[in-house]
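Internal ticket - ligand job 505, (Z)-L-Arabinonhydroximo-1,4-lactone:
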Amino acid sequence: MRYKNPIIPGFHPDPSICRKGDDFYLVTSSFEYFPGVPIFHSRDLINWRQIGHCLTRKSQLPLEKAWASGGIFAPTIRYHGGKFYMVTTNVSGFGNFFVTATDPAGEWSDPVMLPIGAIDPSLFFDDDGKVYLTGTERVEGKPGISQSEIDIETGKQLSQTKHIWDGTGGRYPEGPHLYKINGMYYLLISEGGTEYGHYVTIARSKSPWGPFESCPHNPILTHRDTEDEIIQGTGHADLIQAVNGSWWLVFLAYRMTAPYFHHLGRETFLAPVSWDKDGWPIIGNKGRVSLEMEADLLAPHSFEKEDSRDDFDEDKLKLCWNFLRNPREDSWSLRDRPSWLCLRGLETSLSDIGSPALVCRRQQHFDCQATSLLDFKPTRDGEEAGLAVYVNDEHHYEVALTMIEGERCVIVRRTVGDLSAIVAKERAQDKSLVLQIRADKDHYYLGYGYNKDQLKIIAKGYTKLLAKEVTFNGFTGAMFALYATGNGKPCTNPAYFDWFDYEYK
Ligand code: 6LW
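stdout (C-alpha cells):
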C-alpha cells in the first residue's frame, strides 16, 4: 500500500517516537515557541493527531532569553514502566532536563534537571534496570556522541560522561538514540549538519559503551548529492518497532520549492525499515525516500479532519496555536469578548526579539490561505493589528490595520533581513476588516476586504525571501500569526479577531 510524506507537514523538526501497546506517540522540537514540544498520537504511523504539549508552564519552559531559533532543541520521548519520559534541551534557558507523565496528553511533571552540557539528549532503559543518557557533547575535547548512566528518579549521574562514538567522519555527529535489538546495542545518529549534507548513520556493539562497529552501508539514509530531488536534508531519525514486528524510521527532511529554497521548515517523514542478513537496517528505497512510498502498512486508523475555521468559541486556544516566547498574560484573552480572540498590543513589535501580543500556527502546505476578521480601532499613529506570515523578527510579511498621520489605513509591510518597507497602503473604512494571506509555492499574496467574498490583493512577496536559506540558520518554519502592537508603546484599544480560517488544497 502507498502513503504520503511528510506524515506531519510544516515546521515539525527533530521527531522522536515511542510506543505503548498499539499507540504511537511522537514529539518534535519547538525552539522559541510556547507551549513547547508538541506531542502527537497515531495508531498506524500515517494519520497523526496532536494531543497536547509536553511543556505548558513557564516553570518548565522559560523562554525570555530565547533568540530566534533558540529555546527548545531536539527532544526524545520514551515509554518505560508505565511512565512517559521526554528529555530535551533549552539552549536559552536551563539546559538539559526531562519531564514525565502517565498520560501523554499531559499534564507533564516539573523538570528534572540533568547535569550535562549536551544537546539532543536521549534515554535508553536497559533490561538490567540501568538507564543511559546519551547526547551530543564534546568529551575530553572530542566532538561527538557522549553517554553516562543516570538515576532516572533524580537525574543524578551514576557514571562519568564518556565519549562513545564520533560517527563516520561527517561534521556535527548528533541526534543519538541507543536501542537494544536481538541482544546488540545499536547507536543511531546523524551527521553532516541539518542542511543539504545531512545523513543518518548507525553502529552497534555488545556493550552500551561500545566500541561500536559502523554499519558497512552507512549512511543508511541520505539525500545529499541528489539532483532533481525536492526532499532534502534527511536526518535526525528515530527507530520504532510496531506490535506486528515491522520496523519504521521517523526523521526530519524538508521540501524545496525550487533549488535551493525551503520555507515551511523541517518536517516529519516516515520510512519503512527492513534488515539485511547481517542484521543491519535498510531504510526506504536503499537509503532514499519519496513523497509517496510503498510499504506493508499497519491497519489504517484515521482521525476526524480538523475544522479549517477557528471561531474562538472555546475558553482555551486550540492546540495548533502558539505564542512567541512566554506570553504576557494580559496581552491576550478569550473571555474579554466571548467568541472573539482579544489581543492587547504591547510596545513589542514583530521586529523585536520578545513576546508581542501574538498567536500563530504553522503553515503546513505550499498552497493554502489564512483569513481572519479583525475589529480594531487605532487611535494613535503606530498602533497596528493584523495577519502576518512570520519566520523570525527579521523575516515576516504582514497585512494590517494601522493609523498613519491620523488616517486609518490598511498596509502591507515586508521585512527581509535589514530591509523593511510598507509596500502598499490604502485608506480603510471605519468597520471590521477581513484580512487574507494566500500562498502558493513561489509567492504570498496579501489582501483585505470588508467581507470574505470581496477581497483584493494589494501586495505580494516571494516565499523564498522567507526561506531558511535567506533567514540565516533558522531552525523553524513559516507561521501564520494574528498580532497587535503599539510599535514602541502599548495600544490604547484591544484588537478583536472573530475567526481564523486555514484552508489548503
Ligand atoms: C538539533 C540537532 C539538529 O538539536 O538540529 O537536525 C538541531 N538536527 O540535532 C536543532 O533542530
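Auto-summary: The CA atoms of residues 37 and 115 lie 21 Å apart. The chain has two domains: 2-294, 309-504.
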